[in-house]
Amino acid sequence: MSESILEVLSCHVIRWVREREPVLLGVSGAQGSGKTTLCHQLAERLSVAEGLRTVVLSLDDFYLTRRERLRLAEEQHPLFATRGPPGTHDLGLLERTLARLRSGLGATLPRFDKSLDDRAPASQWITVAPGPLDLVLLEGWCLAVPAQAPTQLEEPVNALERSADPEGRWRRQVNRALMTEYRDLWAKLDKVVALIAPSFDVVFDWRRQQELALRASLDETQEVERRLLLTDQALEHFLAHFERLTQHALRELPRVADLCLYLDEMRRLVRVETRGAWRVDL
Fold first, then answer.
1. pLDDT higher at 27 or 232
2. How do residues 91-100 score in pLDDT, each as one tens digit?
3. Which CB contacts under 8 angstroms, 24+ apart, belong to 155-162?
4. Are 140 and 59 in contact (CB under 8 A)?
5. What is the pLDDT of residues 225-265, one digit of tens each?
6. Could you give the CA distance from residue 183 to residue 177 in angstroms, rounded to a whole number?
7. Is the confidence at residue 18, as pLDDT, over 50?
8. Which residues contact 238 (CB under 8 A, 6 or more apart)?
9. CATH 1.20.1250.20 fits 3-273, yes or no
10. CB 206 within 8 A of CB 198
């Protein structure tokens, strides 16, 4: 992640923390946009330079288990077997975790193993010691994204929706989740930062880079994990589950986010906007 993005974000976050702490900051952006890297770099910088105690959480780590998603697929719609869209997260676990962190009680943070498409064993979860926090960072691809209007759900946006959801049952269920429990979670965010991709087309390249990095991190003994990694064709199918809301987010996040960081294809910062305040082209 470029230094300029860190500089811009750090300045805003320090001011927000001084105004109110602890701050629950949501960082939203398309898959592969660099949210996780940015949040961990930001946490390290604020710790060293400002002495701020920060915890980073990923919405991805709060996916339902594979068994729970398969049960959801049987009961509601087969597309819910795929992790990611609203409706496939354990929001109860997430809200309990956030409540403990903001109260200074400490918490155990779950971890989702994407190479296995399942939640990691509890022995691999991360423990946050009790004590006051200055900042809680929550990052996720659909964070703060509002529900769509019913008329926007009528037409499929890609081949996956045309073939697997021709009547729109899955997308209406996803939208219903956004209108209810996800909206309630978004309302708890004190501030929202959005990383704005230039288009949905670049998301495939960004996400493919992540998949290649994950493959490179596995050793030769991890055959099961290697088999579960996505080929380009499988990745394209996987991302089709996210196209509708990613396109919607690119339109809506500039309206709802407190700070928008616009990226180019190389994830370089090209423009900064704050809601109703100012804009800078770089």
1. 27
2. 999 999 999 9
3. 157/243, 157/244, 157/247, 158/240, 158/243, 158/244, 159/240, 160/79, 160/237, 160/240, 160/241, 161/240, 161/244
4. yes
5. 444 455 778 888 889 999 999 999 999 999 999 999 999 99
6. 8
7. yes
8. 82, 230
9. no
10. no
User: In angstroms, rounded to a whole number, what is the distance separating the alpha carbons of residues 23 and 136?
Assistant: 6
Pick the closest to residue 112 from 95, 94, 135 (CA basis): 94
Quote the CA–CA distance of 176 and 206 in Å, as a whole number.
29
Tokens representing 22? Answer: 């602890």
Q: How many CB atoms lie within 10 A of CB 30?
A: 29
pLDDT digits over 36-46, tens only? 999 999 999 99
For the chain, domain boundaries: 3-273
- How many CB atoms lie under 10 A from the CB of residue 65? 15
The CA distance from 54 to 135, in Å, is 5
DSSP bridge partners of 196: 262
Report residue 134 as tokens: 């200055």
Phi, psi of 201 (to 5 degrees): -60, -35
3-class SS of residue 280: strand
Do 133 and 104 contact (CB within 8 A), yes or no?
Answer: yes
Token readout for 254 is 């500039």
- Note if the pTM is more than 0.85: yes
Burial letters 232-267, b for 16+ CB under 10 A, else e: eeebbebbbbbebbbebbbebbeebbbbbbbbeeeb
